[in-house]
Amino acid sequence: MALASLFRPRGAVCTPGDWSAQMLDAWVLAVFIAYFAVLIGIAVFRARRMRAMSDYVLGGRRLSSFTTALSASSSTTSAWTILALPALAFAGGVTHLWTVVALVAGSWLCWTVVAKRLRRYTIAADDALTLPEFLEKRFGDTSQVLRTLAALLTILFVIFYVSSGLVAGAKLLESEFGVEYTPGILITLIAVASYTFIGGFLAVSRTDVFQSVLMLVGFMIVPLTLIVVAGESLLRAGSDTPGFWNPLTDPDNNPITPVMLLSAVGWGLGFFGSQRILQRFMAIEGESSIPAGRSIGTIWIALMYTTAVVLGVIALPALTEIDLLEAVADPERIYLVVAVAFFHPIITGLLMTTLIAAVMSTADSQLLLASAVAADDVPVIRRLTYSRAAYARVWIGRGLLVVIGIVAAVLALVAQESVLQLVTYAWGGMGAAFGPVTILALYWRRFNLWGAGAAIVTGTLVSSIWWASSGGPGGVMDIHPATPGFVVGLITAVAVSLLTPPPAAATVRTFDRVIGEREAAA
Question: What is the dihedral of CA 152, 154, 158, 159, to 10 degrees?
Fold first, then answer.
C-alpha cells in the first residue's frame, strides 16, 4: 500500500451510512480489538506476580526509571490533553503555550523536590502504601482523623477524574459508532476496569508504557498532517488574526492578563498533590533511578502538551481549507473530526486508539489509587481488609475498584459536565489539598498534625469555591482553582503549625533520621 493511500483525499469526508463510513467503522473496530487484546494480555501476565496488597498497590516498589517516567507522565495525560487542550487552543490561540510551560515546569519540579524524599520516607514509615497512610505516620496521629480525611477527599477527586475519562470515551463511541451517551459511559468503564481489576499496579504501569508510546506517535501524526493540508491558509491566518498566533496576546490582540498566567500556574501546581504521580515515586526501584526518570518524563510531557496546542491552533485554518469548520459544533471534538476527515481508516483507527489510550492511562491509575486508599485508609473498610489473608485483601481492593468506577459513571451520567470542567476540579482540588502538605511534610521538621489537617481542609474548600464560581473583579474567580487553593493552603499550614504546639520529639527524631540531620538543619 502506498504511503499516500493512508491519507484521505482532501475533502473526501465519510458520511454516516455510506460504504466509506462502514469501512471506517470496521477498521477502527479492528484496531480497538487488537489494542484491548494487548492490554488484557499484559494484565494477565502481570497478575501472576501479585500476591500481596503491596504488589497490587505499588508493584513491590520495583519499577524501573523508564517505566516510572512514562507511567507517571501518561497518567497525567488524560482525555483533557487530546480533547480539551486542543479545544482551548482552537478558541484562544497560542497563548495556551503558557499552560504547556507550567505543566513542564511543574513536572520537573515535582520530580526534583518530592520524588526522592517521598520514596525514602514512605519506606521508613512502616512501608506506607498510600499518601494518607504516610501522613498519619509522619505526624504520629493515633486518632486516624487525618488519614480518614485525606482518604475521603482523595476518593472524591478521583471520582471526578474518572468521570472525565468516561465522558471522553462516550464522546468517542458516539462519534465513531453511533453509540448513545449512556451505553458509551458503561462500555468505557468496563474497558478501563477490566485490565486494572486483573493486573493491579504492575499491569497499570506496564500498560501505561505501551499506551504512552502509542499516544505520542499517534498524536504527533495529526498536527504534522494538518500543516501540510492547511498550506497557504496557514500563512494567511497568521496575517489575518495576529493576536491568535502571538503567545503574549489573546485572539483579539489584547495583552494576556494575570488571570490567564495564574491559571497556567495552577496546572503546574497540580503535580505536587496528584497522588497517582506520587504513587509512582513511591514505587520506583531506587533513588538512583530518579534523575533518569525525571528527564524521560519531562521530555514526554513537553512533547505531548506542545503537540496538543499545535493541533488546536492549526485545526482552524486546516478545517477552513476543506469547508469542515462547521462540523466542529463542540470544540472538544476537534481531534475526532480531524481524525476522520483527513486519514485512511487504518490511521483513523490508530488515532482513535490514541484517545482511548489517554483515557485509559489516567482512569486506570485513578481507579487503582482510589481502591487502594479505600481499602487501606477508610477505617471501616480497613478493619475488614486487614482481618483477611494477604491475597484476600487484593480481592477487596478489586471490589472497591468496581464500586468507585460505578459511582464515577453515575456522576458522568447525572452531571454531564465537559471533560475540561471535570479535570479542572479533580486536578486542581487534589493539588490544592495535598500539594502544600506533601512538600512541607518532607522539608519542614516543625510542621505538625494541626497544620496538615488545616491545610488539607482549606485547600479543598478554596479550590472548590473557585471551581464553582466565575467572574469577580478582573475575572479573578476564573483563575484555575489550584492556584488560590495551593497558596491559601500553604499559608494556612505554616500559620497553624506555628500557632499550635510543635510535633512530638519522637516525630522530629524520625524526620531527622529519614531526611538526614544535615539536610534537616539546612
Answer: 10
